[in-house]
Amino acid sequence: MSKTFFIETWGCQMNDLDSQRLSGSLKLRGYRRVEDEHTADLLLLNTCSIREKSEQKVFSRLGELRAAKKEGSKIGICGCVAQRDGEAILARAPWVDFVMGPGNVGYLDEILDGGRRLALDFPEDRRYDYLAIDRPSATRAQVTIIEGCNKNCTFCIVPTTRGREVSRPITGIVAEIRSAVAEGRVEIELLGQTVNAYRCPQTRADFASLLTVVASLEGVKRLRFITSHPAEVTDDMIAAIRDHSNISRYLHLPVQSGSSRVLRRMKRLYTREQYLAVVARIRAAVPEVHFSTDIIVGFPGETDQDFEETISLIEEVRYGSLFAFKYSPRPGTSALRLGSPIDDAVASERINRLFEMHEERKRETLRAYEGRILPVLYEGPSRHDSEVLSGRTDDNWTVNFTGDLRTPIGTMLPVRIQQAQHHTLRGEAVA
């Protein structure tokens, strides 16, 4: 009987892809994935350190896994908390079999074979084996193009947990995408902590050049990318989006704050005015673009006026999607030297107001789609009704619609939008 593994993933798309890589590596070793932690021979916890109390969450979950695991099974801690707190994890939970940071995902075989119990370095060779990725989606392939980050925002732990920027050669990226397309994946999502900082280590081709190459590959029906840094947006990048209809009109462009004073304290490398200028340049070239963003509320020293500037910026940009968080102090970040977060009650009131305002704007945005016919990439049955088809528009809205259930997954269909709902659209496929 084959050995089994259980993997639990927290955090961002990069962590999701790391888990796909770990899963694929284990399946090549003959392991079978299970969803019940009580039956697994190997239990992996792939962690995220973005939020406060991540360490407590890890040890709480570790206690549950220790109680659930069967005799003889192994436990491994992966991801960003592993990178940040590796030695502390082993000291506090010596029964953990190994701790592995993101830089060692490609070295799982050696770790399982007893090479190392603590793997927290960033090897020059990251061993990115795209043929071993266990992709869960039948239509979409996530592709790492750059790892790590050089920006050093004062609130962010990523440069510590994922290292400095390392871009993959463009030849390897293209080979991976061609392989994914040959397997039926028609949507490609390029990933990086700062995806538009990409520079090919061999040719020095930039992100705009990469977009042009990938968008031109046969079989790529839709091309997405995340996450872009406003300071890295170039005219060539905007032109590539404009000139290739298969590049998604959805752009995640984190602003973090609408106050130039707070942005300077965050070390975001742009002002409010510069950010708005970037948005204006993109909208001038690609009028139908759907912007989403990240906002941090309650950063040390944020005043009522700073927050009002954030509100006014959101009003001006009119984001389709917005992700907001109360500031969470992270060990090892320079923001700790800027003072304490603002009072939690004040931060809660601010973030609630922000969400309420955004929900109104989002409903207006979604209602504007009613009556339109939009191309929708069919991804499979709706999660809530197997008789209803589901997919996403070019600008990343989920659409549940009626249509021929025999439609092959991955087909691009024209769909008439009939109704806007809270977070999604409903419609019917048309001839």
Task: Give a quick precis of the structure.
The protein has 431 residues and is of the alpha/beta class. It is built from twelve helices and 19 strands.
Topology:
Blueprint: E1 4-9, H1 13-28, E2 32-33, E3 42-47, H2 54-68, E4 74-78, H3 79-92, E5 98-100, H4 108-112, E6 118-119, E7 140-144, E8 146-147, H5 158-162, E9 166-167, H6 170-182, E10 187-191, H7 207-215, E11 222-226, H8 235-243, E12 250-252, H9 260-266, H10 272-285, E13 290-297, H11 304-317, E14 321-326, H12 344-367, E15 373-381, E16 389-393, E17 398-402, E18 412-420, E19 425-429
Parallel strand pairs: 1-2, 1-3, 3-4, 4-5, 5-6, 7-10, 10-11, 12-13, 13-14, 17-19
Antiparallel strand pairs: 8-9, 15-16, 15-18, 16-17, 18-19
Helix pairs in contact: 7-8, 11-12
Can you walk through the features of this model?
The protein is α/β, with parallel strands linked by helices and 431 residues long. It folds into four domains: 116 residues, Rossmann fold (3-Layer(aba) Sandwich); 114 residues, Transcription Regulator spoIIAA; 91 residues, Transcription Regulator spoIIAA, CATH 3.30.750; 57 residues, OB fold (Dihydrolipoamide Acetyltransferase, E2P), CATH 2.40.50. Helix content is 34%, strand content 22%. It has twelve helices and 19 strands. Strands 2-1-3-4-5-6 form a six-stranded parallel sheet, sandwiched between helices. Strand 4, helix 3 and strand 5 form a beta-alpha-beta unit. The longest helix has 24 residues.
